[in-house]
Amino acid sequence: MAAAKIAPSMLSSDFANLASEAERMVRLGADWLHMDIMDGHFVPNLTIGAPVIQSLRKHTKAYLDCHLMVTNPSDYVEPFGKAGASGFTFHIEVARDNWQDLIQSIKSKGMRPGVSLRPGTPVEEVFPLVEAENPVELVLVMTVEPGFGGQKFMPEMMDKVRTLRKKYPSLDIEVDGGLGPSTIDVAAAAGANCIVAGSSIFGAADPGAVISVLRKSVEGSQNKN
Ligand code: DX5
Ligand code: ZN
User: Where, by residue number, is the active site (predicted)?
Assistant: First the structure.
């Protein structure tokens, strides 16, 4: 069974105090730190790049779960590997022709490869990447249109999660966008085990309690199956 991983989205943290925000999240029970990399092209927003990952890496040993919302993911593999990224998740919409090479190079730089899909992209598109000889190790199902934190969870994306969980019982299946105490139960029941949450954690009076609610929901659903 794929273990529960709770990944606060640092996009909702205080970027001016990234090191202490990272330390705070780990202390409050985060398993991974989710880093949203946006290039102002694949999505309208522009966030952070490899230099920031490199700076943060000097302050934390945490697993840095990098989600690359960029048009040319292959350009970023080497810099992110050098910077100390742990996971490198690219979007299938921009890697239809070169995902095999991309997975290979991500692994060769010591990172864990993942693939993400936008809400409008059919789940079937990622099957070949999970079934490849050199496969991705995580599938990130977007539950909002990528680009910004604080959007509304799209429950209709749970069909994708259910399909993936049925086919791949031990795959890391991550959900991202609009997750929090009021939406976690449907995502957990569908089979998601990696939970990204930005505004619901950073906006809470007690972020540690939210992390633990998310974890309990995932673990509770897994125990039922
Ligand atoms: C959206 C990002 C998310 C975002 C989630 O493009 O990929 O990681 O920060 O934020 P919330 O949890 O606020 O929807
Ligand atoms: Zn993300």
Answer: 36 (proton acceptor), 176 (proton donor)
